[in-house]
């Protein structure tokens, strides 16, 4: 009789099934959507992309935990520090230079600091250029401290920062420029009407 009581209660049936061997109920919809869409990467890659650590744990427990380097690259790109930490510390996942480059581009300082400290993949010149283009001074400082030997185009960086009106970024980059670059930057500031940058450049001139 007690079995009938349980089986006639939809909520209780759902809870019982959720703990049976196989795919947890909470993960079924996620997996079903992944299969239906025919996506090229693993289901755990996409859970990483949205930063769902609980889902990553469920997927790992039921045979759907396979990862590609895209998992951490995407988690870092979107600023999901908890997912990045889980993938590194628990799953020992791989990643590429895209992880740090994209985190730098999107201004995710916590992720940038973590990757610089814990990972060895490093970044490319794009990480510096994108950080400068978006005015992320704090991030370009961290990159410079951890990857001082990475070559990057400082002239292009200050030109893009100037065009976008990032005064603090221009100020940080200014001491590292040649007189020829500064002439170009001055023209860019005038063209875009960035008065504060124009004043900064004129004050720093010879």
UniProtKB/TrEMBL annotation:
<dbReference type="InterPro" id="IPR036770">
    <property type="entry name" value="Ankyrin_rpt-contain_sf"/>
</dbReference>
<dbReference type="Pfam" id="PF13637">
    <property type="entry name" value="Ank_4"/>
</dbReference>
<protein>
    <submittedName>
        <fullName>Uncharacterized protein</fullName>
    </submittedName>
</protein>
<dbReference type="InterPro" id="IPR002110">
    <property type="entry name" value="Ankyrin_rpt"/>
</dbReference>
<dbReference type="InterPro" id="IPR052050">
    <property type="entry name" value="SecEffector_AnkRepeat"/>
</dbReference>
């Amino acid at each position: 009789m007690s079995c009938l009581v349980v089986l006639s209660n939809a909520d209780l049936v759902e809870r019982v099934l959720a703990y049976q061997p196989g795919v947890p109920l909470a993960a079924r919809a996620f997996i079903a959507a992944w299969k239906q869409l025919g996506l090229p990467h693993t289901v755990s890659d996409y859970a990483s992309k949205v930063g769902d650590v609980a889902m990553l744990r469920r997927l790992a427990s039921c045979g759907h935990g396979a990862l590609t380097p895209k998992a951490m690259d995407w988690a870092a790109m979107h600023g999901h520090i908890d997912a990045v930490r889980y993938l590194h510390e628990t799953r020992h996942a791989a990643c590429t230079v895209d992880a740090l480059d994209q985190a730098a581009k999107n201004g995710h300082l916590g992720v940038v600091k973590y990757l610089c400290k814990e990972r060895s993949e490093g970044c490319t010149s794009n990480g510096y250029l994108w950080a400068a283009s978006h005015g992320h001074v704090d991030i370009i400082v961290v990159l410079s401290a951890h990857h001082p030997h990475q070559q990057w185009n400082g002239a292009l960086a200050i030109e893009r920062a100037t065009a976008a009106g990032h005064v603090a970024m221009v100020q940080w980059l200014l001491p590292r420029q040649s007189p020829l670059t500064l002439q170009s930057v001055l023209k860019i500031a005038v063209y875009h009407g960035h008065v504060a940058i124009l004043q900064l450049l004129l004050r720093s001139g010879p």
